[in-house]
Every structure is written in C-alpha cells, then in structure tokens.
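quick one, three chains, predict together pls
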Amino acid sequence: MASVEIRNIEKRFANISVIQGINVDIADHEFVVLVGPSGCGKSTLLRMIAGLEPISSGEIAIGGRVINNVAPRDRDIAMVFQNYALYPHMSVFDNMAFSLKLRRQPPEEIKRKVAEAADILNLGSYLNRSPRQLSGGQRQRVAMGRALVRDAQVFLYDEPLSNLDAKLRVLMRTEIKSLHQRLGTTSVYVTHDQIEAMTMADRIVVMQSGRIEQVGSPLELYDEPANLFVAGFIGSPSMNFVSGTVERTGPRRTLVASDGTRLLLPEGRGMPDQSVVLGIRPEHLRLAAPGDGLAAVVEVVEPTGPNIEVITSVAGARFCAVFNDRHPFRPGETIYLAPQPDKIHLFDATSGRRLV
Amino acid sequence: MKAIALRSTPLLMILPSLALALLIIGYPIIDLAWTSMQEVSRFGQLRGFDGFKNYADVLADPVFYSSLWHTVIWTVAVVGGTLLISLPISIILNDEFHGRGLARVIIMLPWSISLTMSAVVWRWALNGRAGLLNASLMDLHVISQPIEWLATAPLAFTVEILIGILVSIPFTTTIFLGGLSSLPMDAYEAAVVDGARRWDMFRHITLPLMKPFINIAIVLNVIYVFNSLPIIWVMTEGGPANGTDILVTYLYKLAFRFGALGKASAISLIMFLMLLVVTSIYVVLVMRAEKEVTTDKTLEEADEEPLVIIGSLAEAKEAA
Amino acid sequence: MSPKTKKSILYWILLSPLVVVILFPFAVMFVTAVRPRDELFTYPPTWTFSHFVWQNFVDMWNVTNFGGALLNSLYISSAATLIALVLSIPAAYALSRFRFRGQGVYRQFLLITQMMSPIVLVLGLFRLMVSLGMVNNLNSLVITYAAFNLAFNIWMLQSYFNTIPRELEEASWIDGATAFASLVKVFLPLAVPAMVVTGIFTFINSWNEFVLALTMIRQSDQYTLPVQIYAQVAGRYQIEWHHVMAATVLATVPIAIIFSFLQRYLIRGMALGAVK
C-alpha cells in the first residue's frame, strides 16, 4: 500500500488547459473519490496517475516515489475501466492471470492467487468462460478480479459502475466498499455520480473545470459546502437557493429576496447590504403557518415511498421540499415553507463562497 | 501509448508504406511527366527536351479524339446502366426473402473473376460461328442465323458496354447494400406511423438518405470504368479499325505496340489530370457523406472513417 | 401462401434475367471445357455434345504450361499479400491510435494512390522496372501489387482497429505489458479477422491483375494465369477453345468459392462504420 501525492498538476491539450494546478494528498489506505460533472478533468487526472496521459507540469508521487516518467507497468497500480476492458480473446481465468503471467510468477502461485480473487468475487464457476458469455455485473467483477490479484499499491477506478443498471450499481457499490474495508488498498475512484461519491468515499474531491472546488469527508461536504457549486452538486434532491440582499433590522439580520419576501437569518451571518445567496436543503424545510416563511405554489408531488418530494415554485424559482409525513399536497395549492435557521447556508453572490 | 510513445513513433510506422507507395506510384508519375516533354526515339531513347510537342501531336491526332469520344460513351453508358440496375437489385437484396443468401452470392459472383477471364469467356461465347450465345438465341428462335457479334465496331462496342455493366454491378450493389443497411430503421418506423406507403418511403426516406452513397458510386464507377482495359483489349483490342478504341487501349497500343513513348506519356498525363479532377470530386463527396453519416454520432466517434471508402478501394484494383 | 413466400417468388422473377446472364459464362466455360475438340465448331452452334472429355483438363495442363503459370500466380499473390500486410499493419495502427502531424496529408496521399489505376502509370512503371533491371522478374509484380493494395489494406485495417477499444491496450500496460507485449498478446490477436479478410482481398486482386502482368512479363514461362490464358487467345490463328475454357475453369472456380464466403464480410464492413 502507498500514499499518492499530487502536486501542482497541470494538463494542457494543445493550448487548451484542462487541469490547472491540482494538489491532493491521498493517504495510505484511503478511499478517495474524484467527483464532478463531465469534462471537469477527473478522468484525465486519474489517467495521469495511471500513466496513460502525460503530465504537462507538476508531480505525482506514489509511495514517496515521483512517477512522472515511470511507465504504467512499473507504477504498481491496478485499474478498473469504465467499459471493463476485458481481453475478449482470453478466458476469465486468463484475464485475471495476465498480469501475473507477464510478471513470470510460477503457475501454482498464479492459480492460487486467481482462485483466491475469484473466491472473494464469487467468480469461481466462471473461470473458464469467455467475457462474452458473462452478464454486465459479472464482467464488472472480472475487472475487479483482475485488479485484486495484483496486490497493487493503488487501485484506480474510472467510473466502473456507470454501465450497470441502477440496482446492480447499488449492489456493486457496497461490494467495492466492503472489499476496501477488508483489503485497505489505497483507492482513487472517479465518478460523476455524487451519491456514489458520498456513499463510498473516505474523502471526496469535488472538481469543476479542471479545478478543485472542495476536498473533505462526505459529511463535511454535505454540511458545510465551501461554495455554491459544491452546495448544488452534493445532495439529492439538490439544495434550494434564494438570492437577495442582507438587511439589518435590530439585532437580527434578514434576507430580502428579489420578490420582497423576508427571511430571518441566523445570528452573525452576512454583512448589511451584501448580495448573498441563501441555500437550504429540501429536507431542512418545514411546513409553516400561512404568512410565515416562503409562499410556495405546489407544482408536482413525487412520492418516493419513505418520503414525499414536493416541487414548488417560490418567487419564480424552483424549490424542492422533502417530508416524512404524508401530506396530501395538491398541484396549484399554496403552502408555506420555513427553513430551519441552523441549517441555512449563506454564500456570497459574486464569489459564490460560503459565508461563515 | 501516448504517455510512453515518442513523437516519431507514428512517423516510423507509416514510413515503410509511404516509401513503397512513393516508389511505385509517385515516381512513375514524375517519370511520365518528364518523358512527355522529351523527344523519344523509336527505340525508347530520350533525345532531349521537346517542350509540348508530344502534347501537340496528341491534340492533332484524330484517333485521340475518337478514343476520347468512345471513352465518354463507354464511361457514361456503363456507369449509367450499372446504377439503373444496381439500385433496384440492392433494394431487393436488402429485403428478407427465401434464398437471399444465394441471390447475394450469385449477384456478387462476377466480382471474383478477373476481367481478363470474363472477357476471354465472353469472346468465345460471342463467337460468330460456334458461340453459345448464338446457340441459345437460335434455340429460343430469337434469331435464325448466327450473328457476328464482334465483327463490326458499333455492335462490338455495344456488347462490350453490356459486359462492362454486368461486371460493375457487384461492386455498385455492395456500396448500395452498405448504404441501405446503415439507414435508420426508426425513420421507417416513424414513417409507417405517419401513414407513409412503400413508394413514399422510397422517395422521401430511402432516396435522399442514399444520395451520398449514390454519388460515391457514380464517382468511383467513373474512375473504374474510365480506366478499364481488359474487356475491350481481350475482345477486340480496340478494333476493328480503332472502332472500339478508348483512351486506355489507345495508350497501351501507342506505348507497347508502336513505341510512341512520348505521345503515350502525354496521354497518360492527360488522363492523370482527368483522374485527379474526378478524385477531388470524390474527396469532397466522401467528406460530405462522412458528415451525414456521423451527424448523430458522439464526438469521440466522429473521427471514424466511413467504410464506404473501403469499397472504393477494393474496386479500383479490379480496373487492372 | 405466406406473404414472404409470395415476395420471394416475385423477387426471384425480377432477379432471374440478371442471374441468367451472370451464370451464362460459367455454363459456357464448363460446357466447352469438357467438349470433344471436333465438336467445338459444329454448325448450327449447339449446347449439346456427344460425350464428356475430362481428358481436356489433363491435355491443357500438359500443353499450356498451366502449372507453371499457376505457381507464378501463387507466388506473386502470396508475396504481394504478405508485403502489403506487413507494411499496412503499422501504418494502420499509427492512423488508428495516434494523432500526429501530417496525418491528414498522409490520408489524402493514400486516397490519391488508390485512385491511380495501374493502366495510367503502366508506361512509367515499365520504365522504372527497366531501369531497375526487373523486367521479366516476378518480383516486379510483387512490389507493384503490394503498393497498389496498400491504401485498401490500410483503410480496411484502420477502420477495424478503430473498433478495438484503446482501453484494452491501456489495461495491458497497467497489467505490466510492454508496448510490444501488448501489441503481440492483446492487440494483434484481436485484429486477426481483419488481417485475414484484407489479406484475402489483396490476394484475389493480385491473382486477377492483368495490365501490369502483361507489360512486365515478356517471357512465356514467367506468365501469370490471366496473361497465360490471354496468350492462348491473343493473335493466334488456331485457338484451342476447349483448353482455354478448361484453364479458365481451373483458374476462376477456387477464387469464386473463396469470394462467395467473403462477400458478406465486405458488405458488413461497409455497413460497420455507419451502424456502429
């Protein structure tokens, strides 16, 4: 096992800069997820760690050794690809044994290691099949198995679950996480799915346009998003936003929204006359008496089973609220939503930064 | 690979093929251009720069004009006939029916046989006395006397054009089949839902979507037929009395029978320029077809070659 | 009668004139090849004949040096196929896997070489071979055939290579393979079908080529099959048609059979780019 240090990494294709100076330290045994919308540079960063993409500037070190100019095969990493990249002309056994054969390990050793990995992944009875004969989930396991037999220092995952159907994805998510808890191999996992990131990561790196927006544990990102982008990206359904200006009325401050609605702000937040964006998660809204809180016109009601999600319109903006109770909302009805004061997030409207 | 490859790697990989192509295809063009500006002795020796005298000779040669005219008729008739037959054939072969596999094999059959051998067999089949075409037509009481098919130029040329059409059908049909199978099924399904009939679908969906393939088939066939020597060479050698000579047969006679190297080079170069024009048209058409084929693909896939080109390549060999 | 049966009958009726015309020369070949010599020029001409003379094939083989021409054609076609493949594979790989300066120019160049038919260049090629001292040398045809098939090979292989996911090679590098090992153990095994199909097409093209073979080879013992058969009918007073047809049967039938198996790959190949 090893740590991965990423220092001032930049990447340019021709003259287009796709990654601009990224610094992340990934500790030994850590499971780090790189997440962001497509085109944010997360896959490129992973491929640079793997050695599949040249580094324009900066340094990457694995286990303290700078590997910028080390070929992928000498980096002692294993990777699981989005489309699995199973060798179609080899059996499952040969797929998993390929790396060991290349390293000229003795046949009994190879057999033992493949059998061990197959055992962990429940692939024992498929070893003689060709990848073509496997289902999507089984292929995914073989791809995992190929990484497992390696005893590599670092596991890299490039959106490994994105080709599976929803149910299987949830299942494999749990399997990968429990596997990591068992083996403790340092892992870097790329996904565009924030739920995957939240559920699997020790630490999440949120990226956008080639930059890091925030690094932190899942709950840190959820509870204290550093900026508007992270606030909107993490959490599902995503956070609601109201923009307005801060006004001082006596000891407390209020937010005056563009339509004139006034909202009491938690103590000590926001400078007077500052343009801000207030954020509140759907689960942190409660029903209030008429005239109290935000007037919201119900548009669509979406029961999910455990919850009811109500999509409403507040001052022309989309606003979502989640309730455990089975309120009989009707489309067109006006309800009043009050944010829990201690759950309010405030962001500077121009910079997007979180206001503490 | 990018990470570990040197910048020169791809260049080293294309170099051997480039070198061979330059030697065998590039050099002769330059040599022809050079020779065409030289005075050449009857024994093939270059006697020095001669300006455009060879070109002037060619342009003053009545046989050149008659051959050019024959080439135009030959090309237009063969290509036109081929397209008219191939389109319905390919639509039939694209549909499901009993024995389709066999039908495809039969229609493609002439492609596998060298033009030389086809021409030899036809020359015998058309024999004025004992040819089996005469036998068949007499058995069917279409004619009562055997016909000398190859003795007079107009009849011989017509027969050669028909055989030219026959041997061009497989390639053209293959292009069309490739095109037809790439048409989006959902467009037809949508049309059926919209209440279109078979003919409407052909006019409003098949034909417009096939247009790039038809264009490519036209250009490639023009190049192919324009260059085709064996049929006419084996059956009539351009005779009788230059009556079936097209540019390639005349060129070949000038070069290897009359030893008129200068004039032959000049004709080669003129033909090369004509081909270059047609090729440029082809390139434009391919690029346009590529655009149409790739419109609904994702960006990553966009740099994939449309395999239409491949057909083109297979075919041009046949011209020899 | 089911609609499909009805449709099938209609289609076969529509196709029948063409089918007849296509099969006609084959019938002519067979009927002439096995006919007694003195029944070649019966009048009025007729399809029927008194008895099968299989001996014609044997006589033809002995009289016309068919075996020698067959060997020449086999040698030339195999060697040209091999050279064309060996040169095209790296080029196709480069076009498929790298982005490099001059790539576009190289593609255009290939396209133009493809358009140039041997006939337009034949005089220049002949002069080239004279200066290289390779007239009457079978290898002159080997290298020209290889060259004229390069573009087709490269394009065909490249478009197939494009369908082999790059990730497979990347996975093998991470698994510890060198660039060479990855090529040999992962990439090339997957490219075998394309190489076989492309190779067979080059083989057939070379086998059938006429103009260059007619021009470069002046000695009858070095003739290739098409020239050998042509020589049996060109400028002769007495043409032994039964021998000529026996020779065409032997020269065309094996190729026609191979081609029949291959033609579906060709159609699929053309559709692939668009369907995928």
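Chain C touches chain A through 17 residues (CB under 8 Å).
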